[in-house]
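== Folding task for one protein ==

=== Format: two labelled lines per protein ===

==== Paired sequence and structure tokens ====
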Amino acid sequence: MHRFGKRTHRLLGAALATAFLASLGVIATAGAARDGNLKGGAVYAMTNDAAGNEVLAYDRAPDGSLSLQGTYPAGGEGTSMIRLSSQGPVVLSKDGRHLLVANVGSSEISVFAVRRDGLELRSVVPSGGLMPNSITVRRDVVYVLNNGGMGLGNITGFHLTNQSSLVPIAGSTRTLSAPGSDPAQVSFTPDGDSLVVTEKATSRILTWRLTKNDEPFGRQVHDSDGVTPFGFDFTRDGTFVVTNAEEGVVGKATASSYTLRGGFRMISGSVPDFRSEVCWTVVSKDQRYAYVTNFGDGTISSYTIASDGSITLLESIAATTTFGKLSIRDADRTKNGRYLYAIDIISQMVHGWAIEKDGSLTSIGEFPGLPETVAGLAAT
């Protein structure tokens, strides 16, 4: 009995030790998930269908792969054009609770509540102008860029409620610089003190300051260093990198960098990427790199961003989708900074890459489900 008892104690001790080590593994795994290392996310795009705009929602696995989770009617209409020339028609609030979508054809904005099991359409409101094609969100303030077509476009402000509704900000509408200016993007500066708009047809960059009541004032009109300024993205310190499509001339695309610190100032002039029709811009989470998509030939170029905001071409071709075709469009990166995604209207897929520490891009796959009219992309 004595020998059997010792053996039993040894077995019991081993079992408890194994269970303890296993529990440590569970705890470590849970901790990693909380840290975002093992956590997935989502990617959203819109169909831009004139018969009824819809949102395509993809689940993102921890390895970056995507699977189509569902399609959600936006309650408005798109244009069915395969070239919606703007950045930001589909955006997420910073807390990830709201998805905002521009219904360009019906001049409305849709707001979805983002839930664990998908999206819930909560409101559809007039955009405050014609042909909304870009949206920016900061805390509970939303500004919409209304293209205006051949007329005079504008920006219009809203407050975003906890119920996913948009309430117009009285007196917030401000006109752009000229009729038919073909604006591409509106965005808050990182400090929330100003708004920036690019105009392709006039090659101008517009800026406004914001009052404490979130109303724009003191519009400034600046000449862009490059021709056909398009999409842009900010670093945390306020540098913004702007693509210049250079009127679509083959091989002549460029990018420039600017700041509003101490007033509007150009940092780097038109730095060529030697590609065609560059349009969309994404800055890496570590603020060291900018990725720009070249619609004209299905490529992504990369730039380094120095501490003073100057940019230098890193790779003319950092990645490709449908090479040599009018194909790649909107892009975005995940909040954890690990993955970059872009939509392609020829392959009709979402293409994904891992963002490496040296700024290079490694393909993680191509994921089907897009129509050729797809526009906009937002990732978590």
Summary: The longest strand covers residues 311-320. The mean pLDDT is 91. Residues 1-32 form one domain.
